[in-house]
Amino acid sequence: MFEAVKQLKDIVIRRIDWLDARELSQLLRESEDEGFRLVKRLVSEFESGHNRFDQPGEVLYGAYEDNQLIGICGLNQDPYLQDRTTGRVRRLYVLPAYRRRRIGHKLVKVVTGYAQDYYVRLTLKTDNPLAAQFYEKLGFHSNDPTPHSTHYIDLFHSEDRIATQTPF
């Protein structure tokens, strides 16, 4: 346990206002090697201007170790709903060599904390069973009734649960 906490202290979570292709190259390469297209979509949508995480209530965070980007997670207004009280967790990805060190957990906690000022509910979609388990451990519920979503969390219930599971 001490080792995991010690390792996490070296990880810095920072807001990303502009994507740097060089900075993202390892995430892009490794995500594609795993068969995931989420980082490629992040880059494509950012470059086209379709999604730059720059609308009210939106943000993109990166996890860094020694100034190297090792993970990423974003928050958008849910694009499938007219309701502006629902946000959507998007593009969570952590390099394989850095998994099981609670980096994804920390990214989701930071995004959820940011979302508290803007939304009452967060949604997300995943077709990956391991990702589904990960989100459910963080308090997200499966079988989201909203369109194009698999999971949701009501924020007024989420912060206590996420905070109690986080050792930092």
UniProtKB/TrEMBL annotation:
InterPro entries membership: Acyl_CoA_acyltransferase, Bact_Acetyltransf, GNAT_dom
CDD domains: NAT_SF
Gene Ontology molecular function: any one: acyltransferase activity, transferring groups other than amino-acyl groups
N-acetyltransferase domain segment(s): 11-159
Keyword Repeat among record annotations: no
Coiled coil regions in record: none
SUPFAM superfamilies documented for this protein: Acyl-CoA N-acyltransferases (Nat)
Pfam families: Acetyltransf_1
Keywords: Acyltransferase, Transferase
Identification of the protein by name: GNAT family N-acetyltransferase
Organism: Paenibacillus foliorum
